[in-house]
């Protein structure tokens, strides 16, 4: 749910409330006055998910590519070894 900041025009009480976009807060809980709360403009809260780089500033995909290339070479060597052997099915 979005987070909204409100300030009372009467007493200056500031509160932060989590509610849906259609709801509003109009009554102050500090001075208990009706229709004195005004919604304040706020900076949006954005969580940056920066998992594209590891601690060593190395791309996550590059580690995977290294393992794929290493295993590709091993597989190639194993295929060549099998081709040289005389394989007879039972």
Compact overview of the structure:
By secondary structure, the chain is an alpha+beta fold.
Which features characterize this protein?
rod-shaped; alpha+beta; three-stranded antiparallel beta sheet; 90 residues; 3 strands; 1 helix; single chain
Write up this protein.
The protein has 90 residues and is α+β, with helices and mostly antiparallel strands. The chain starts with a strand and ends in a 6-residue tail after the last helix. The chain has one helix at 60-84; strands at residues 3-8, 14-18, 37-39. Helices cover 28% and strands 16% of the residues. The chain has a domain at 3-39. The chain has a three-stranded antiparallel sheet, with no helix packed on it. The radius of gyration is 31 Å and the shape is rod-shaped.
Instruction: Classify the helix fraction into a percent range.
Output: 25-40%
What is the N-to-C succession of helices and strands? EEEH
Provide the residue-averaged pLDDT: 82
**Extended strand count:** 3
Q: Span from first to last CA?
A: 66 Å
Describe the sheet with the most strands: 3 strands, antiparallel
Shape category: rod-shaped
Total number of helices: 1
Q: What is the element layout, followed by pairings?
A:
Elements: E1 3-8, E2 14-18, E3 37-39, H1 60-84
């Amino acid at each position: 749910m979005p987070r909204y900041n409100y300030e009372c025009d009467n007493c200056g009480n500031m509160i932060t409330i989590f509610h849906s976009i259609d709801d509003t807060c109009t009554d102050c809980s500090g001075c208990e006055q009706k229709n004195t709360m005004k919604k304040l403009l706020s900076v949006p809260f954005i969580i940056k998910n920066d998992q594209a780089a590891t601690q060593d500033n190395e791309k996550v995909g590059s580690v995977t590519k290294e393992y794929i290339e290493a295993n590709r070479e091993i597989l190639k060597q194993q295929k060549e070894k099998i081709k040289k052997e005389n394989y007879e099915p039972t």
